[in-house]
Specification:
The protein is built from 11 helices and 8 strands. The chain is α+β, with helices and mostly antiparallel strands. The radius of gyration is 19 Å and the shape is globular.
């Protein structure tokens, strides 16, 4: 049986709860200023970035750690999420912050032909109709919002399935997946060995002196880092219950610390409880927390 079919039975009883939560989130977002959500103030509180590995020492999509993979196509698939931040340079994070306090679903990413599809399925004239029919009743339960601010469902989401954008998201129609197969796979949030941290996009937060994670993905294939400062630890953006406490992950051990179980238990399920009711996290790792105000006091003006 398709996971999506099972998902339907669980979600039907939770639609009214999710709607109330969405209303509460909207009220919370509307009443919270940018300065409350982020460090704000525009004050440079950290020393020069060059003091921590060099201002231009960002980690590219296929860095030196993945150099051996050049020359052949790696089998790589990732279930990706955008983290909300009003102060990030990323427009997707800004838009996500307007929708939700914890996360937005970004899409399934992958190299062409890296899915389990074993047949070539050409695009069908009814694909968009099928995609909309399958996704529309449930898209808010995965926070699968339109991050280009076009609103609603499901034209933006369908374009992601098509691989229309110039992003790493080339997974779905290019891989021979039907709309129903793609949505079913997107909603598959089981904790399995297939879901390893394999994708991070970060920005250097000059107020807190850490790499702030703005996108994260879990799946199979090599770990890819984008942005940020080399050797500098990661933090999640101030979000939801972590408004005043910063969650820190080691730069070197982030793949061990930021597991899908941890992310599911402490981010996804805090906002969307049905996820852990359907697929409980197997373990909850200890949080590495620091008080935001203490960090700001320690970093001080440069």
């Amino acid at each position: 049986m398709l996971i999506f079919s099972s998902l339907f039975l669980v979600i039907v009883s939770k639609v009214s709860i999710a709607s109330k939560q969405l209303e509460q989130q909207s009220t919370s977002i509307a009443s919270t200023s940018d300065s409350d959500k982020h460090t704000g103030g525009g004050v440079q509180r950290c020393g020069p970035a060059s003091g921590i590995g060099g201002a231009s020492s960002s980690v590219g999509g296929i860095g030196s750690q993945n150099a051996a993979l050049r020359g052949h196509v790696e089998s790589w698939v990732s279930t990706a999420f955008v983290l909300p931040s009003s102060g990030a340079a990323s427009r997707k994070s800004n838009v996500c912050w307007e929708y939700n306090d914890y996360f937005c679903f970004m899409g399934l990413m992958g190299n062409p032909r890296s899915s389990l599809a074993i047949i070539d399925r050409p695009p069908n004239s009814t694909d968009e109709k099928e995609f909309t029919r399958v996704l529309k009743p449930f898209y808010t339960l995965l926070n699968w919002y339109t991050l280009d601010k076009s609103g609603g469902c499901c034209k933006y989401q369908f374009q992601i399935y098509q691989g229309s954008f110039q992003t790493p998201i080339k997974y779905g129609e290019p891989n021979g997946l039907s709309p129903t197969e793609y949505v079913n796979e997107a909603f598959n949030l089981q904790s399995t060995f297939h879901k390893q941290l394999n994708y991070i996009v970060a920005e250097y937060n000059k107020h807190l002196c850490y790499n702030e994670i703005i996108r994260v993905g879990f799946g199979t294939g090599g770990f890819k880092r984008h942005g940020g400062i080399q050797q500098l630890d990661y933090i999640l953006p101030p979000m939801g219950k972590y408004e005043e406490e910063i969650v820190i992950f080691s730069y070197l051990d982030v793949t061990k610390e930021l597991t899908f179980d941890w992310f599911k238990a402490n981010v996804l399920c805090v906002d969307q409880e049905w996820i852990c009711e359907m697929w409980p996290a197997r373990q909850k790792l200890q949080l590495h927390l620091k008080n935001k105000e203490e960090l700001l006091a320690v970093s001080g003006p440069s």
